[in-house]
């Protein structure tokens, strides 16, 4: 496991990178969700749908991905991968730079609150 620290505007966000073992595709959906960092199967479904939408690499896909990732973190506020995808969307997406920075800071603040509970 590798922990990575992202720092943006005075806020820190920790991301976790986990190697996927061979045979992972044979896991049940709930086991897969737990491997990805959530106990909520619904949050995991939103996460997968959000990643699929974001991979379209167009504005509509990015907006849909944001909506789905937001729903995922609302279902499981400690789901780090979903928080990371939200942040990545605002870092690499086609957004107004000032708005993107504001959203990045908001995500980092929300994540800090949820991780300190």
Task: Give a structural overview.
The chain is mostly helical and 117 residues long. The chain has one domain: Serine Threonine Protein Phosphatase 5, Tetratricopeptide repeat. Helices cover 61% and strands 12% of the residues. It has a two-stranded antiparallel ribbon. The protein is flat and about 40 Å long. The chain starts with a strand and ends with a helix.
Coarse morphology = flat
The whole-angstrom Rg is 14 Å
CATH class: Mainly Alpha
Label the CATH architecture: Alpha Horseshoe
**Low-confidence segments, ≥5 residues, pLDDT <50?**
1-18
Largest sheet: 2 strands, antiparallel
The CATH topology comes to Serine Threonine Protein Phosphatase 5, Tetratricopeptide repeat
Number of strands: 2
Q: Concise description?
A:
By secondary structure, the chain is mainly α. Helices cover 61% and strands 12% of the residues.
Task: List descriptors.
mainly alpha; 5 helices; 2 strands; 117 residues; disordered N terminus; Serine Threonine Protein Phosphatase 5, Tetratricopeptide repeat; two-stranded antiparallel sheet; flat
Provide the fold topology:
Blueprint: E1 2-8, E2 11-17, H1 29-36, H2 41-54, H3 59-75, H4 80-92, H5 97-115
Antiparallel strand pairs: 1-2
